[in-house]
Protein 1
Amino acid sequence: MLFSSMTFVFLFMPIVCGLYLLARKEIRNYLLLIASVLFYAWGEPSYLAIMILTILVNYIGANYIYRSHNEKHRKQILCLSLLLNLAFLFYFKYFNFVIDNLNDVFHLNAHFIDVIMPIGISFYTFQAMSYLIDVYRREVPAQRDIYKLALYITLFPQLVAGPIVKYHDVEKQIDNRSVTFDKVALGVKRFIIGLAKKMLIANTLGAVADKIFALPVEQFDTFTAWLGAIAYSLQLYYDFSGYSDMAIGLGMIFGFRFLENFNYPYISKSITEFWRRWHISLSTWFKEYLYIPLGGNRVSPKRTYFNLFVVFLATGFWHGASWNFIFWGLWHGLFIIIEKITGWHKKTGGVWLSVIQHFYAIMVFVLGWVMFRADTMSYAWRYLANMFGFIPAHSLTYELPYYIDNLEIIVFVIALLCSLPIFKNMLFLDYKRKVLRSLVNIWLIILFLLSSATIAASTYNPFIYFRF
């Protein structure tokens, strides 16, 4: 079930929120658990068994780890539990990729049943693994109530597309959280902003990008290639940050406080800064559970660079079973390492240096998004070549108005402006004047009505990060 669907916005969400707010505190967790299972089963009923197995593996493993005082046994159970989690993820997400590559390399013709990936498996697997590791480190006690652990893993606001919630961040909230009118009101507003990002900006610019990326690169010119790359960059940001806003808003309604997942990443002046602002829940997960255990930057420079290489290789592979994502991850890792060697991300100076740094960061992540968006690396290389004029357009299939009309140009400009922290504190300002507060509320109502109308009229409504 999509957050941006009529069923969710006008049926599922009002019913669940209404029942939750009316229910006694003692039964709210059970109500949320039932709602989360129904939410997941709505689109993926056949994969509930995998989620139940994930819950059981982590419940049994974590309780054994917590009770045991034998360090060797604790490590063995941790490794076994983590391997089982990764085995589920590998089979459903990467099995077809491995078989296809083995066929290509060894000229085989092996065929197995095509494995369909359960929605959100990358997100809830990482959440389950964070729980195991937190318990092993004795940062938190093992959860003795299996229903509460099931709620943590299946909680529907962030179940299928994040943000990735680490167990130690919400452990106390599962047992004790407050629901107030102010939190509910702020949660609803945050949900509306996320919905507007998705429906009014991401979908509009996504249509522009899709038209361009659907064509052979020889059939559009360099300007059109840049238009497609920038349109997709904005689409991806508003699609994913919009989903995160909706998830965080729903969490507020239910009394949870999820950490922010985006902090205006497109204002970054380095790729190091970009990853402090983009998909924050994933980058902090890899930092806490992979980079630091590998030694982080507490080791020799060469080992630090190797650690960064491993982290960004894993980051690319986490996003999908495709060489495109692996190259995209390594592309970012390469510039992170270069910045680490040169200290570029720490350089300060006047306005011109700031402009150069910002331009550099934009170029790196926009070119990277081409790899991310292209269906194959072959297409990605040719697309990038077109962007720099190395592939002449033999025959232009369409004129520019085919790719972007006047409304889409307006949305394009709005998207660029809103990627800056101009309206950052709009929801959180303590408005002294009722007029200003009323204007903000009226604006949010208009956004909700426009978004709802777009949901009702549109058949184009994908969520990019659902496939991860």
Protein 2
Amino acid sequence: MSTAVLTHPSTNEDWEKLLAFSKLVHPRDAQEVFVRLYKERPDLVPENHAMLVEDGEVLATASLLPHHHYFGDAELEVGELALVGTHPDRRMEGHARRLVAHWLEEAKKSGLAYVYLYGIPRMYETFGFSYAAPAHFFPYLRMTRDVLEAVMSPYRVRPMIPADVVVMEELYDRANCRTPMAEVRSHEYWTYRLTTTRQRGFSWWVTVDENNTPHGYIWADLEKGRLREVVAADEEAARAILQWMRWELAERKLPEFSAQVPLNQTFARYAHRAGAMIASPHTAYPGNWAAMIKILRFQPVIEGLKTQFEERINESRYARQEFSFTLVSGEDAVNVRWQENRIKVGPGAVGHEIRLPSTVWGPLLTGYRTIDDYPHMELDEKERHLLRVLFPGGNPYIWDLEQSDEL
């Protein structure tokens, strides 16, 4: 009996098999997506992709894609588990599970802070993944002509030119650096992103003042009336984008524009005040999809949140005390000391231990949940109160059913 061998694509024949397999497993998805992710992204190498092969046929695939993420004040090396699939005739035999376990072990060896994915929860929860925030959970803003009618701005929107790229990078960083798990984009990745998305019919636009200085940008699918990414440095830029959208709606005879954007950003705040409706992200990503996270290295994640911890403690009853405690996840312990209005973080146990499973730490650290969402956790009231201070939740960048204007 033959045994499935774990390998990486190394020849043109391997790549052809890989792409044909993706078409078989994901028939509804545009195949150019897989070409880009497998072969064209400048920071990927064949070793980022794993295949299980038996008798020359691909049984299953999974990839670990490298990223850098903003997390508090830190920029962390992380991995995205992606392109997981099993041959329809060989499902329920454990092939995908073998590849997921392989990549988690490789991620630990590489020292990645965490691994995240967008997928169907039931399989990944058994590996210790839990719901976290972004991307598919950024809400949708829906803007009709009525919302846009009264908006006027002296700024204008024009197509992006190469000289704008550096400013766009700065605008993106400024808008996203405090959003947990937001991508850190290199200049090379920006160049690749702009080029490939333009080839697929998306357009890039910049909002500028009377001196032609950019104050925001838009990545748009104008045929569908969808802003895939939008950043405004100030409210005048937000008004200019809304004014431009009104003209585009009239020109293309579209009923509305939608934009998927973190709710704590300038554009989202202004558009919502102007009357934009907040809609579920499942409008664009239907089905039981989840943004999930598994934290592998506790300390760098905690260190990234030091500034937020300091702000939260200074506003609490603990502000004038000096104390220390240890946060424990499995065998990973990180001590946190509050001295002279500053947080110090180190490895190992110092002071009182607060122990929670990794499936709870992930949502707390990303701001997706509070400790009160876990009433079954065995904690005394002092521990719960401290965790409420450190992890208040309620970050306004994700979609919440109770906050939504429409379902």
Protein 3
Amino acid sequence: MSEAIAINATEEQVARAHLAHHFDTPQQQFDAGTLGMWMFLATEMLLFSGLFCAYAVFRATHPEVFRYAGQYLDPVSGLINALILLTSGLTMALAVRFAQTGKRFALSLCLALTMLGGVAFLAIHAKEYFDNGQAKLLWGTHYAPTVGPNGKPIAPVVGLVPLVVKPKPVASAGWQQLNALGKTGFVVSHSDIMPAPTGPSGVATSQKPAAPENPFQPANVQIFFGIYFLMTGLHSLHVIIGIIVIGWLLIRSFRGEFGPGYNAPVVYVGMYWGVVDMVWMFLFPLLYLIH
């Protein structure tokens, strides 16, 4: 009984040592931090929700582009990354549990494994980006693929080329008269001025995509890769931030700063890492599987 009281007293002292002056109790401080973390994660979900809406709009308006360009992505790499993040999510959850129970070695081990999973995820993604760059499967005007979805070489597609509109010649006796008499100072009536040239039919644009050399390739494939790099790149940035913060936790765990009395930072980072995992569980099927 006395041992339990001593342990509880020690935990209370540790919690009080980390208590900010504007909170009354450690539990109040923890609850406030948890609420703040949920609010931050809600803004993160709003950010990614905007990207998912953009994905839905472009997929609805250009379904042929997503069916074609999705064949370039390797679903095996996406699946491996999904498994890696799921495993790292498990180790992060275990880290939270070990921090709450005071198992310092297990806590440090799980944090290290979570970091390793994040690094492995980024390494596979970097290899995908490198392969896309080599094949010119990029966004906007940088899209000029050298291989087809089957891996066979194709003639490169030039991005955007100027659209030169040649106006149709307009015959006008009054204009010819103006050219002939203009040097002599004669004045012609307004009706004799040459009318404006007739433009091309349809919507006029200053630039248009070049016709692809591959007849089976739809137009505007660069839209898919713009969305792909934006969504996966933003997610990878969140993974990088998570790795840095987990490394900070790992250093503090080596110092023995976390235990039953104080473990809030581990809990908050665990919440963040769970959202990072969840976002990839949506990105993986949308980009790699649904064609």
